[in-house]
Amino acid sequence: MTAPLLLVDGHYLLHRAWYGFATRITSRDKTSDRTGVFGFIALLRKAQVQHADGFEIFVVFDSEEGSQGRAAVDSDYKAQRPAPEPGLIESLALIKSALDRTGVRWIEQDGCEADDVIATLATGARAEGRAVDIMTTDKDFIQLLADPSVRLLNTGFAMEHRYTAREHVLPRYSVLAEQWPDFRALMGDSADNIRGIRGVGAKTAARLLTGGRRLENIPAEELRPAWTAQWAQVLRWREMIKLDTRATVSDNLLITSPTAPLPTAAQVLEALHLW
């Protein structure tokens, strides 16, 4: 039987692990910070127990040069993000070793952002009839919710609010999931440093897109001259926000069978001699 799929945004989970514990987790001799790897495995195991029993779990990481393609279109793309804290990125190698130890498959595809790899894998899985959950807080994935068998999972929320599905998008944002790139191109996206049109917020963007319109269908008389002057840039922003569902990945990344129950984080660190 083909298992449903949980795709995990690896850098999101790394940041949550790194910043999400009240005290640092160190090796027994107090010389090495293990918060990243311990927290990552602990949070992933909790997600499996609570939400993904019987799922295939697959983790996707950003590549170091992944954002260069979009930055070539707009040099401001993600330019506001500060350098990571010392030790955070260094935790990645340990996390990958820990995933290998637990049998959880993962990828860091050269030249690709994790968003595009996740979108590609989700689209391929849906073509095979598999239900797909994506563990992330990245709102760009809302555009994939046009498919009613795709959901977003945020385990940082209270249990009753952890899933976002197609039916939640219109009541929450006043646009459809498939309009998400148009919506964000108009109002901007501070997380990725996409400016949007000055003076256009969520309410105005939703009004311009009323009735399922796309950017091309907005009547000219509803656009102020200052907005029209920026329209070519708005269209470029929309293309940047769109997820690439045809990223270059191997055909055999997913195995379609459930991931075995994960050991505890302490057990994994013990097995890797990280304590």
Helicity level: 25-40%
Q: Output the radius of gyration.
A: 20 Å
Number of helical segments with 4 or more residues: 11
- Count of DSSP E strands? 6
Question: Approximately what portion of the residues adopt beta-strand conformation?
Answer: 5-15%
Q: Which whole number gives the mean pLDDT? A: 92
Secondary-structure-based class equals alpha/beta
Categorize the overall geometry: globular
Describe this structure in words.
By secondary structure, the protein is an alpha/beta fold. Helices cover 38% and strands 9% of the residues. It has eleven helices and six strands. It has helices spanning 10-19, 35-51, 68-73, 91-102, 114-127, 166-173, 180-187, 202-208, 225-229, 231-241, 265-271, and strands at 5-9, 56-61, 105-108, 132-135, 150-153, 163-164. The chain has a six-stranded mixed beta sheet with strand order 3-2-1-4-5-6, sandwiched between helices. The radius of gyration is 20 Å and the shape is globular. The model has no long low-confidence stretch (mean pLDDT 92).
